[in-house]
Structures are given as structure tokens and as C-alpha cells.
Amino acid sequence: MTPPDSARFPVVIAHALSQRVTTSDGTLAILSEVELVVKAGETLAITGASGSGKSTLLGLLAGLDRPSGGEIELLGQRLGALDEDARARLRAGRIGFVFQSFQLLPALTALENILLPLELAARADARERATHWLARVGLADRGGHTPRQLSGGEQQRVAIARAFATDPEVVFADEPTGNLDADTGARIIDLLFELNASAHTTLILVTHDDALAARCQRRLHLVAGRAHEAARA
Known about the structure:
Elements: E1 10-23, E2 26-39, E3 43-48, H1 54-61, E4 69-74, E5 77-78, H2 84-91, E6 95-99, H3 110-120, H4 126-136, H5 152-164, E7 170-174, H6 182-199, E8 202-206, H7 210-214, E9 218-223, E10 226-230
Parallel strand pairs: 3-8, 3-9, 6-7, 7-8
Antiparallel strand pairs: 1-2, 1-4, 4-5, 9-10
């Protein structure tokens, strides 16, 4: 059972988070003074127009990039105090990722793609869990196929299985239905939220899809790099 909101602890905290890049025309502010607290078990959609900083924010919260200013705390660790290797160790086994472009390794089979993060996390039951999660996403009979032998929807199912297989505390998803047709995207949304609910995982996703955003408990809308949280549904 998911604990009540008052009993949940923060898993992601951003304070005065800013990201700037230098261009030939000067300094461009991609994100400006973003404040955010996400508690365990919450689902959050990050929305906004193209170029508003959505994917940049997701990458910063996940520790994939360093901000120009401000602080991020992920799973109780201040990311600014960690080097790249330490951030990678923090993510291993505790963070899952789902990308618009799937990011499956083309030379590996579906089963091997799911198996890889489990082996990196030194899970003794790696193959058993990979097989279990392949079945959970309805692809038990496709484990020996490489990504090019799978449809887009099947590839995203493998990516979702890979994200959840390590029992992560937080899953970050960047436009998880962006490369899929409407019907396939709807099925992927149902699968993503079904698995997230059963695993009680914190889900933070970037999307331009209002239907997908509406499935989340909270919505953070970015306008010109500034964050505005919408009221809960």
C-alpha cells in the first residue's frame, strides 16, 4: 500500500535550479530558478512548449548533467558534491530511464537489453528478473529478437521493462510515447502507469501529450525556462 502523502519523504529536491549556455549571441537562460520537491511514490509530468527546457530539467534532476546554478538532491544525495562516477553509482539500480528513442543496444536481444542493468547492479537473480519483466510487458516470446526485429511499441515495452527491472526508486521518462502512433502510445501509457502503480515507484516524465500529463498526480509547466505548478486534479 502506498503511504499517505504526509508520510512520504522527498526523493528529488531542486532549489534555485538554473541552466545557462553560452552562444555566439551571448548567454541563453534555458532554466531559471526552478524550485521543486517530489515525494516518494508521486507521479509528475513536466510539460511546456518545444524549447521550454523540459528535457534539460529532466536530465539535471537525474544527475545526467550539471546545472549552472542551484542545488539538486536525489535520493538523499547532493548531486553537486558527487563526481561523475559517484553520480553513476547512485543511479545504478536505483534509477530507471525510458527515452523517446528507446535507447536499446542494437546488438543485444530484447532479453539481453533488460539483463544489462541488472548485471551492472550485480543482481544474483539477473536472468530470472529479466525473464520475468519481459513477460510482464507481454513479450515473453520475443526475448531472442534484436531491436530491429521489433516494432516501435515492442521496443518501448522492452525499454520500460529495462527501466523497472532493477526495482528503481525513481523512473525518469522523456517523451515515452513521442515516436509512437496514437493507439500504440495509449497502450504504452496504460502499461507504464500499471507497472508504476504496482511497483510504487516515483515517476517523473516529460511530455507534450495532455492525455499523458493528465494521468499524473502533479504537473510542472515550463514557460521560457520558468516553472509553474498546476493545481492537482
